[in-house]
Amino acid sequence: SNAEAQAQMIAAKKLLFAANAGENDRLYGSITSSDIAEKLSAAVGFEVDRRRIELEHGLRDLGIHDITIRLMSEVTAKFQVAVVREGEDWSAAETRAIAKAAKAQEAAAA
Fold first, then answer.
1. Which helix (H) or strand (E) holds 65?
2. What is the C-alpha radius of gyration for the chain, rounded to an integer number of angstroms?
3. Distance between start and end Cα atoms, the chain
4. For the chain, what is the largest distance between any 2 Cα atoms, rounded to a whole number of angstroms?
5. Burial class of 40 by CB neighbour count within 10 A (0 to 12, 13 to 18, 19+)
6. Which of 6, 2, 36, 41 is nearest to 19 (CA)?
């Protein structure tokens, strides 16, 4: 189906958003489903309806976020959104994610 073809194009897409963030990696503002739909549409070459993106609230933290889009009731696709500081790239987001996970493990072990 058309929705399944679209899902395959969306699956595994990686979208990068540069944002201003404070010292604790919290954004000044947020990345909304509209922002994500706009960038995803540009990446895949067809219009993506923001209402199909399953996001309860905007992204307010730096990091890599797994996002689901529901194209039809039974057709979904997962893709990733990395929110980084201005000038950073995807590898910076991955490095931050690894460091965060290590910190969480240390805290759990303590």
1. strand 63-72
2. 15
3. 51
4. 51
5. buried
6. 36
As given in the structure block, the two tokens for residue 72 are: 């039809």
Please answer whether residues 101 and 108 qualify as being in contact, where contact means their C-beta atoms are separated by less than 8 angstroms. Answer: no
One-letter amino acid for residue 58 of the chain: G
pLDDT digits 0-9 by tens, 20-69: 999 899 999 999 999 999 999 999 999 999 999 999 999 999 999 999 99
Q: How many residues does the chain have?
A: 110
Confirm if 14 and 44 have CB atoms less than 8 A apart.
Answer: no
* 11/69 Cα distance (integer angstroms): 9
Specify the DSSP element, H or E, that contains 79: strand 75-85
**pTM of the model as a whole:** 0.90
Residue 69 bridge partners (DSSP): 53, 77
With tokens 């010292």, the residue in question is 23
CB-based contact 63:82 (threshold 8 Å): yes
Which of left, alpha, beta for 109 (phi over 0: left; psi -120 to 50: alpha)? alpha
